[in-house]
Amino acid sequence: MNQKLAQLKTILAEISDIKGAADLLSWDQQTYMPPGGAEARGNQLGTLQRLAHERQTSSELGNLLTELKPFAATLDPDSDDARLVKVVARDYEKATRVPSEWVVEFAQVTTLAQQAWMEARAKSDFPMFSPHLEKIVELGHRYISFFPKADHPYDILLDNFEPGMKTADVKAIFDALRPKQVELIKAIAQKPQVDDSFLHQAFDEKKQWDFGVDIITKFGYDWNCGRQDKAAHPFTTGFSNHDVRITTRVAPNFLNSMIFSTMHECGHALYGLGSPDALERITLDGGASLAVHESQSRMWENLVGRSLPFWEHFYPRLQETFPSQLGNVPLEKFYQGINKVQPSLIRVEADEATYNLHIMLRLEIEIALMESKLAIKDLPEVWNTKMQEYLGVVPPDDARGVLQDIHWFSGYMGYFSTYALGNLVSAQLWEVINRAIPDLPEQIRQGKFDALLGWLREKIHRHGRKFEPQELVQKVTGSKIDAAPYLRYLNQKFGQIYGL
Amino acid sequence: MNQKLAQLKTILAEISDIKGAADLLSWDQQTYMPPGGAEARGNQLGTLQRLAHERQTSSELGNLLTELKPFAATLDPDSDDARLVKVVARDYEKATRVPSEWVVEFAQVTTLAQQAWMEARAKSDFPMFSPHLEKIVELGHRYISFFPKADHPYDILLDNFEPGMKTADVKAIFDALRPKQVELIKAIAQKPQVDDSFLHQAFDEKKQWDFGVDIITKFGYDWNCGRQDKAAHPFTTGFSNHDVRITTRVAPNFLNSMIFSTMHECGHALYGLGSPDALERITLDGGASLAVHESQSRMWENLVGRSLPFWEHFYPRLQETFPSQLGNVPLEKFYQGINKVQPSLIRVEADEATYNLHIMLRLEIEIALMESKLAIKDLPEVWNTKMQEYLGVVPPDDARGVLQDIHWFSGYMGYFSTYALGNLVSAQLWEVINRAIPDLPEQIRQGKFDALLGWLREKIHRHGRKFEPQELVQKVTGSKIDAAPYLRYLNQKFGQIYGL
């Protein structure tokens, strides 16, 4: 069986290498590629993705898995090899259900749709885009039809991002969350608003960049195994556990953009860098799911990076860096400013208290689309109605409404809830971490993050993709994904800031 | 047969895509990859190269070629399709001789070796690097063993860079060249030396960079289809005829380094960008050979970029850019300074009169290594002895000696002579071009390069890889590669500068 296992790992190494190469091609496309390179890049990516897919669905792989399953059943179920067979069998089972014609059509439709989206968003013209979305939704329905009937059709899509999670689970979590978040926002709205005007000034871009670099160096980001570049939409990507790169954007007139996106992407990168060598080149590297990944990025961005102890350490040097802009802004005021709660139109700019409501709105729309209970033409109206209901603001145009995110238009249906789930998991983990490291706030106040990073590596990062998200969260926190810690966190934090 | 041809092109498109992806991986390795990424990059490159090699050696490809050869024989022998079958058959014949295990090992060894080279060069520590070079030379011997016995074992390696050329041809050309170049250098040494001290001053790096960008923009480099980055050893690489990128280096205290390496790499890039769409994705893009490629880079760098008419146009704005350094240096003096002949240690910084001697030294060492007449440990000593013999200078350390070039450490054995051959071809072409465009010096004086670029595109670039180098040179100049025009050029130019 060891020989079979070695054969399996050889195939997986090849798949990993091809995917790593494809990921570099994508990284380059979003950072340095000149515009003329687009067509050839499309061909190269298409070829690599086809080569990977052929291997992921080969009968050789299928036969090896069939032979290895009884053997894996005799092993410690949490061992690397047992999990390897389990996870790869799950991937194989899913990949082989989807006909290659669908894969090709999906690639074609979404390539055109993304282009159309850019134009539609620029012109704020939803009808221009809706035929593309019709096709994407139809492809979603067909995708679902390849799988055995689930409790809910949306389960099939959700499973691609959160393996093992059900639509009903997410709905139950969000149902517990929604009224409490709405209540909190209403209470905040009754109180005097905090001032954040000092964040909206001219800040030298190079100085911003360097400050961000200082922060994540202290977090423990290893520049020997990573780098930071600029990108229109910040992202993190890795080509091994020794080369995980981040991107950021720097707004010349708004400090938050760089600071928090840098910390956010660094959180993702630390997860990738913490994946152990033993899980490399067997497709078990990376993270348990998008929600668990997001729990890491949001923890470093928010629970660390938007906390008072963090700024007790970093604010004096931020003031030194920008004396004319911040020299007269006291720490407490700065802390309030970066945590200002204000219902707004754009998800990626939303504060911690309102963010999840943007997600819930999107999830409800996705589910309705997959239940065929919502017509594409009615999307803008439904969007705007829900925005009014949840956040009390209505987009003046579709660019700032239903057209704002690229996800659907890239074919990502089932993705959005992972952002909110990640927020919840970050707070669950934070409670456990603070019990394990009782002086963590004091450490952060001193600019020390090694105990925190060590804990995350030991409890989360080192497992790579071995466990399903609910399994991992249960293992580490003692319960499944739960809204209560996040609500406690929000109420405590914003209760203090707004004097509730 | 059209169907067979289409099948052939489908296979070649896949090979092109895989190779284009591998080339991007290499570009990244030399520009942006963090050091930690090296091992995984070696795996990824190894896998891609193996996948390309499998396709390049597949019986499907072999059978198609067998079926297509009689058909190709009925076509115009210079037509794209006839040449396609011929060139691809030559590639196939060579590739099928090399086992995949060798290809994978080569990729892994050279990836690690390049990383080690950077460190070894930084520390000027040859012994640190020599185990890597042992492996590379051993891989060279094994490579040669896969082929039928040639007139000289080195022929096998040379053919990879100069298809159709023999070691004896190169030796004969170099034998004609060496005494004349040595004679010229001696004559120059009798004359008063020109002053170039003004080139060795502090020059703002950003201003240098921008000046280089201005020059190559005027040459016709299309930034929509390219970009420039920094690299320790400047190089050019393309992923299609719409994405050809250059790299350069900027020395803070020496102006020549950036100016001439930028023009040099641009010359390569213009060749790649001039490859027609019809030759894309069928492995006929790129250039006829490295010598022909080098004829392009050296032409823009030297025949254009080190000429008096060129600086009649650009020097006033260079003086404006660096008034304190060059304001009091007259054009004639500047022209002499950038053309100063002085035997020196570093090949890439060598002047036109001594450059080829650096190459001859390297060629002799390569040949001795392939004849097993030289041990790796003796390399630094042999290097230094030959430097003394040919150029009268001895490197004070290995960083400025045997470790200066990346080529061997990337596995390129058989490569160096192409640089000197390229010099010769550049002068051969230059004589023809100046007959075709009699007012070319006046055009250059006005900063106009479109007629020159147009000629090169028409006569050289548009043929991609269709012709062997000697064939192409013969076609364009009426003779094979020949030392005489280059010697005429050197004698005329340096006779004037040094008053011989």
Descriptive account of the structure:
2 copies of one chain form a homodimer. The first copy, chain A, is mainly α. Chain A folds into 2 domains: 2-97, no CATH class; 136-500, Neurolysin, domain 3 (Orthogonal Bundle), CATH 1.10.1370.30. Chain A is 64% helix and 3% strand. Chain A has helices at residues 2-31, 38-56, 59-73, 80-97, 100-123, 126-145, 153-158, 167-189, 205-219, 255-273, 290-304, 308-321, 323-326, 331-338, 355-370, 379-391, 417-436, 440-445, 450-459, 469-477, 484-498; strands spanning 228-230, 236-240, 243-248. In chain A, strands 1-3-2 form a 3-stranded mixed sheet. In chain A, a hairpin with a 2-residue loop joins strand 2 and strand 3. The first copy, chain A, is globular. The N and C termini of chain A lie far apart (63 Å). The relative contact order of chain A is 0.12. The mean pLDDT of chain A is 96. Chains A and B meet through helix 1 and helix 2 of A and helix 1 and helix 2 of B.
